[in-house]
Structure formats: structure tokens, C-alpha cells
Amino acid sequence: MILNAISAPRIFDGRQYHSNSALLWRDNHIEAIVPLEELSSEIPVQLFSDSIICPGFIDIQVNGGGGVMFNNDTTPATMQTITEAHRKHGTAYLLPTLISATPTKISEALLACQQALNDRLPGVLGIHLEGPWLNPAKKGAHDSTLFYSPSLESLQQLPWPDKGQLLITCATERVDVGALSWLEAKGATISCGHSNATFEQLPAEKLKHIDGFTHLFNAMSPLEGRAPGAVGTALLTDHAWCSIITDGIHVHPQSVLLAHRIKPKGKLLIVTDAMGSVGSANDQFELDGEVISVVNGKLVNQEGSLAGAHIGMDESVANAIQWGIDEAEVLKMASTYPAQALKCEQLGYLRPGFKAAATVLSNEYQSRAVLVDGKLY
Ligand SMILES: [Zn+2]
């Protein structure tokens, strides 16, 4: 394979900035970042003016995009539509996310994931199951009639993929340590979410099985003076990452800044929690037969509850920078940190030997191009 190159006035490699340099890759791997003046004239280079190149964005919670919802059609074709819609927003890789569903639908989704991974569908890292092992008191837009506490037998019956990343959001107060350990042994990353846990329901022996907390502040027991809740526990548990939605609607910007101040470096990461309306001209879609509409930039169900977000990763990044978090840190919150949360060792940095994955943003943080598995889109 020939050597390829892209260049921009600024490249952020996940650790430091390089000015007027080019990112070089061959096949699916990064070779180097070199100053433009040292680049051989034989290497074709695509120049992006007024731009910044950073590690490819990774969104670990995407329910839909391009007018489709993963829940409505659990197929590799839907995964492809979703990844294409989010690529326009700078996302190189994502986890298609299944909202609480029946065991039959969960099985279909897991098989579709296996198929997508076998076929090397660009941009799909694995799957995120958000439920149905959730707490009805924090159901959000999920159908709580589908919720249950999983037995080992019910977990064993599902066709788990044998490759890729598996992220499971569950209300850990409703899942026993035996089930959590079984999922861990399957290679799952466990995140506590849609949880009404008290601080006392999240003791150390449970927390050691919890890798993260899903969409911090949303659909979880709040932090109060006499009751730290899931939010307080998430903020206090240094080993656990927290994902957060930065659309300015789900979480107040000041609460995002507060979480950023409290969590150790690397443990706060951005998710979009995007729905089918992202990258689509339609401002309505169906979820489990219920109509979800965009009203003033908010996605709401018929009860008026927030039902996911109407935002892309590039806009989420722009918001967090505008609110005052350092640019390099925000770029890592959308790339390096989610890669670490999922233990993807070859993603999250622009380093020799790492996967050829990058996001090119305008100086206003709008996506201009995305490099996925060595292909520039
Ligand atoms: Zn949720």
C-alpha cells in the first residue's frame, strides 16, 4: 500500500500539537507526523486549510442517525446508515446502542453486531446494550415493562459476539455480583446507568465490577446533602469513567464543568446519545411505536420526557470548548478517553502503529473529513 498524507495548520496527536505538519499513514496504520517541509514531494498530500486534525472521535452511545433507529431495525444495514450519518459529524467509530428491548430483539442486535464485525463494517466498534436491566424509577424514555434483573441463565442464552467491544449499561443495584462477573468474563465493559441506587447500594465490592457511569446526571439518583446517590458515587469513584451529554440541554454547562473539575483526568468523556433525527431532514421518528419529535432542539416523547439527543459529536465538542474546557482536553474527551474506556489499545492517539483514524475539524470545530481504517471520508 502507498503512503497517504493529510495536512493542516494544527495537528493534535492526543498528547501535543504539531504545526504545519502532515499525518502519514499506510494501509490501516499511522506511520508518522512530519513537518510539511520534510515531506517527500512524491507523497500525495491533501491539505486542509484553517483546520485541526485530531484522533478520530469515538462515540460510545449512539441510538440512531440518518433517519433510522437501531431499535427499529437491528441490522448491519442500519448500523451502516448510522455510522455514515455520524461520520458527517466527525465520528470515526461508534457503538450502535440498543435501548431496552425484548430478548428476541437483543439477540437480533447481537447477531447483527457479529455480522458487522465479521464484515469489517467501517466505524462499528461493537455494541452498547442500554438495558433492559434498568431501574423503573429512572426509566427515561425506555419502556419499563421490558426491565428485569438478569439471571445467569438468561444471560447465557444470548448470542454474544466473539469480537469487538461490548458495553452494557445496567442499574447495578438490580444486577447481582454473579451476573456482573459473568458479563465481565465475557469481556463486557460495565456501566451503571438508569439507576436509582443509593450510596449504600454501591459498596466497594459492587464498584469493583463497575467500569463507568452512563450519561452522568441523567436518569440517575441525584447528589443531595443527605443522599449522595448514583451521581455522588460516580463523581467519587476515581477508577470509573463517566460519560456525559454536552448538548446544553441534558446537563447544565456548569454541571459539566463541575464534573470535569471533580473527575480525575481521563475519566470524563463525551457521548452524544444521538437519535435517528441526527443527519436527517425528518424531525420525527418512532421508538417502540411511540413518536419522538424535535421541539426547539430537544427530543421529547409524547409524555414530554427527554428522549435522547439531537446532536453530533463535533457540535458536542464545540459546546464543551465554548463553556471553558481546554481544547486539547475536550478533543481527548471525544477520542482518547472513550478509547481508554473501551480498552481499545490502538485508538485514541495519532501515533506510529496506531490505527489510521483521525478527525479533521474546521477552526469552528465543524467536521471536514474523517479517516477511518485508513480511508478518508
Ligand atoms: Zn439512557
Query: What would the average pLDDT be, to the nearest integer?
Result: 96
CATH fold group of the largest domain: TIM Barrel
Please give the largest β-sheet.
8 strands, mixed
- Rounded to an integer in angstroms, the radius of gyration calculated over CA atoms is 20 Å
Distance from N terminus to C terminus (CA atoms, Å) equals 18 Å
Total beta-strand segments: 21
What's the helix count? 10
General shape: globular
Superfamily at the CATH H level of the largest domain?
Metal-dependent hydrolases
The CATH architecture term of the largest domain is Alpha-Beta Barrel
Which percent range fits the helix content? Answer: 10-25%
Ligands in the model, by name, code or SMILES, are:
zinc ion
Overall domain count:
2
- Look at the helices and sheets and give the structural class: alpha/beta
Strand content: 25-35%
Low-confidence stretches at least 5 residues in length (pLDDT < 50)?
none
Short summary of the structure?
The chain has helices spanning 76-87, 103-118, 152-156, 177-185, 204-207, 229-236, 253-262, 313-322, 327-333, 336-341; strands at residues 3-12, 17-26, 29-35, 45-47, 51-55, 57-62, 64-65, 68-69, 91-99, 126-130, 165-170, 189-192, 212-213, 241-245, 268-271, 284-287, 290-295, 298-300, 358-362, 367-372, 375-376. It has two domains: 3-53 and 362-376, Urease, subunit C, domain 1 (Roll); 57-346, Metal-dependent hydrolases (TIM Barrel), CATH 3.20.20.140.
